[in-house]
Amino acid sequence: MATRSLWRSRAKLAIAASAIFTGSAAATIATSEDPATTLKLCTTVPVRLARDTITAASIVFDYQYSLWGLPEGSVERSKVKHKVHLRSAHKLQELCFKNGGIYIKLGQHIGQLEYLVPQEYVQTMRESMLNKCPVSSYDQVCEVFKQELGETPDKIFNEFDPVPIASASLAQVHVARTTNGQKVAVKVQHIHMTDTAAADRAGVELIVNTLHWFFPSFDYRWLVAEIRESLPKELDFLVEARNSEKCLENFQKLSPHIADYVYAPKVHWNLSTSKLLTMEFMDAAQVNDVKAIERLGIQPTEVAKLVSQAFAEMMFKHGFVHCDPHAANLLVRPLPSGKRSLLGKRKPQLILLDHGLYKELDFNTRYNYASLWKALILADAKSIKENSVKLGAGEDLYALFAGILTMKPWNRVVDPALDHLVIQGNDSERSELQMYASQYFSQISELLRRLPRVILLMLKTNDCLRAVNNSLVF
């Protein structure tokens, strides 16, 4: 009965929405200053929203139908839930790829929430969302160029490879040579991004709110708020260009002792706009490619130390933090001015890419965050609680906050015999973490809803850095 009611409600909602949208769409096209773009929106957005509605309803129905009548905590329910998690993760993955853009970013974020999301979702998203993003056609790339610079790439550059070397959620990167022969990387925004951004945010919000309505403990509304705030900045490549220059200036002024060891590609401002970003091409190894790093004569452990030190400087001293340091955004090359040691080893230089997502931390936040990490290292329970409360975790959820930061349950967080900066990342530890996350799912959801968004992004940054460190050290 409940299932039939669910489907009837969904059908009524779809019919009403379709009728309203059809009438308003015709009026919008007729009065628009750009009828072609408006027509494109009015034909593509409903399809994307329909996919959202169908996917959300399908996932809800699958959980309700498949788990109906199975006792909580039973072996049978656990087996069935695993299968539903897998099916639902693949449905969400398919939706992200079909809609692209913001949805890819949503999938990437889910793939990093190992302390909250079932492992089936984490694994599915992590395996696909970083390396298999949709690619815009060369014709679409040319359209962006004509809109931004008035000419196609072949008229602006001496050479321009139509096949991108990388594609991400918001843009893709092409290799080119300027008229003076300099090799550059050209980041081109996917053509639909700006047009559909508002509708896509609404679509993601629809999915999250629908799932929360049926499953109150499944509360990801904080994630929607984060996307709503950060996306407009990430869509403006001039903001990204300014961020990259400010980042390097901070190292030169505030951290001169490691300024030579951190680098960002130079921006070609005359060939850059809000949707195009032309930068110096970097010939370097990806930070998690241990074999390539070793071939360069660099020790992976030295890279791990440099990554940790660079981001510690940003978090605790600069207050201006790169918040998307996954492996694809961090490159390594030998220090250009450095010489080999007696053993033939070379010093690393860390190259930071994709400067679209930065967060500023005020002095009090930096101080309290640093004090919290000091307390965690010393296993000082009183200080952990005090500083967690100051950062917004509250007196009731500070233990969970400490657990998320260290990826350990509370009894191990306050164990002075343990090294709290070491996380092995083995199967046993992952299994323990998933059990812990499942047991305290609703409390963790409440904690993430409660924390300031700047702290949420620090958690995401920590997760990315932890994954990079594990690839280099273990």
TrEMBL record:
Residues 1-26 form the signal peptide. The keyword Signal applies. It comes from Manihot esculenta. PANTHER family: AARF DOMAIN-CONTAINING PROTEIN KINASE 1 (PTHR43173:SF19), ABC1 FAMILY PROTEIN (PTHR43173). Residues 129-387 form the ABC1 atypical kinase-like domain. The keyword Methyltransferase does not apply. Belongs to the protein kinase superfamily. ADCK protein kinase family. Keywords: Signal. This is ABC1 atypical kinase-like domain-containing protein. CDD domains: ADCK1-like. It comes from the Eukaryota. InterPro entries: ABC1_dom, ADCK1_dom, Kinase-like_dom_sf, Mito_struct-func_regulator.
